[in-house]
Each structure stands twice: as structure tokens, then as C-alpha cells.
Amino acid sequence: MTIPLFGEFLAAASEQIDAAVSFPGELPASARPAAIQQLDRLISALARYDADITLPDEFDPAGPPPTGHERAAVNTRLALLRAAEHAQLAARAAASARAAGRHPVVHHLSGAADHLAAGRDLLQTHLTPAGAGAGPSPWAPVITSPPVTTALIAELARHAHRLAPWMSQLALARTPDPAVPAPASLALHTASGWLWAAGPAMATAALQHPAATTRRRLLDAVPASTPPPRHRPDGTDTIAGLCAGAAITSERLRHAMPAAASQSRWSPAATSLSWRRDALAAAILGHTSELLLRSLASRAGHRETGSAIAADLGRAAEAARQAWPTWRASRTPGTS
To answer: Is residue 125 part of a domain?
Structure first.
């Protein structure tokens, strides 16, 4: 199973936007209402990305002055929010018109909005329900780190730079279109102006961190947070294959733990019998771990440079020896 990467959605959205704004000539009047509708979706998607980036709640006048990155990020959020608001007004004003959605430009704008929305959903699989901060996924601190958020801001800036002049031309089309009322054109033109403002602000924020290539690679490499498929040993697995299977099992357990934790207090399976079985399983795992650790310690002791490792493994084996009998005893009612 191939796990989708965030960079794949970014690349697809970028291609669709480039194809839309590269359409030669003026957009036909029959396609303008549908194009405005899709622009509303697209700009809203850009604004949601920026809204997910964690910013200071407020700047303390008595504290240190905000950094250039923080000022640029705040200006970016404001500009994209205003652009999304006016794009929505334009879409509402043009909603009564009959939209022809088969034009290639409309198709490209719709595809770009879909890919950006899917990419944002991918990022959200790593984060908390609030949409920011370190969640259960090991990728969460990477996604919310300044270098990666800066790479995302830079990508948003590129889209804003590409869309703003094209939207302005669409709003001020030479051929009048009775299907697109004047309020829709005015709101669209205002939205393009806010995109013009968002572009430089985002570009300024992107320049605050070096190593642009490295941070973009990190952003592109973010995978979807989905559990890997189950790997069942078939008796022919090599040691490397068993190690890979153990890693897969651990990852599947990590995905299952949040859901299990939220339901643990109300689980109907949490009976005295299930607790005794859990204790027996812990005793078996502990005893097995002790045997494995003692075997590894014995092998390490025969190597010239393995004395320190052997000592550490021996202490771990002794800890396991002291733990697993207690688990075995606790499975029997009336014992401690």
C-alpha cells in the first residue's frame, strides 16, 4: 500500500492553478460565474491553511517587539482572511447566474481547491482536534515547526502571486457579462487586491528562515497518518522481516491507542476475567523478555567491546525477572 504524501497534493494543486491562470485570452462570459464559485473555494482553502499556523495570541507592548516572521504571519492571515471574505461575497452575488462548469479553467480551479483541501486533511491527521500543537503523531512537531510552516507560507505566497493578477483581469473583463452583476465583479477585484497584499507578506515570512530546500523537502515528505497494513508472519520470515513486522505492529498499536484510551472506562470487556488474562499476558511477555535479554547479554559478554553492553542487558534482564512473577501472581484472585 502506497501512503500519500503531502507534497503530492501540493504539486497537483500547483499544476491546476498554473493551468487555470495560463488560459489564453479572456474567459468566456458563460464560464465566469462557475469560475467565481471555484475561486471562492480555492481562496478559502488557502485561508484555512494559514489559520492553522500557530501565532502568538497577542503582542505584549511591554515585552520584546515581535519578530519580522511574526509580523509577516499576522499580516498574511489578515490579508488572506479579507481575500476569502470578498471572494465569498463575489460567489454569493454570482450565485443566481447559470454556471457553466465544463470549461477547462473551471475544472482546473475546482481541482486545485480539491487538492488543497485533501492536503490540509492529510496534515490534520497528525494534529490534535484543535488543529495545532503536538498531537499523538511523531510528525506533529515537524508540521508545526517554524521551518516547515515557513515552507508552507512560501507555497501559499506563490499561489497568491499567481492568482491575484488573473483574478483582477477576470473582475475587469472587457466583455460585459450580464450574468455577473457589478457587486460580484467589485468583490472579486477587492479579493484580488487582498491577495496582492498577502503575497509580499508571505514572501517576507518565508525569507526569515534559511535552508529553503531542506524545509520544503520536509513539508513534501509528510505522509498521511494511517496505520500500515497488518503483516502476518508465515513461517518463512527472516530476522529483518520479523523486525519490520514488529515495527509495523507497534505503529498499528500507536494508532489504536487514542481510540482505546477514550473508550477504556466504558469498555464492556473490562471484566475481572479480562484483567486476569492481561496479567497473564504481561507475565508471559516479561518472562520472554528476560530470556531474550539474558541471551543477548551472554553473547555481548563474549565480545571484547561488549562488556558495558552486557552489563546493561544483564540489569535489564534482572528487572524483567523481578517484574513478571508479580504479574503472574496478580492473575490469581486473593494474591498480591
So the answer is: yes
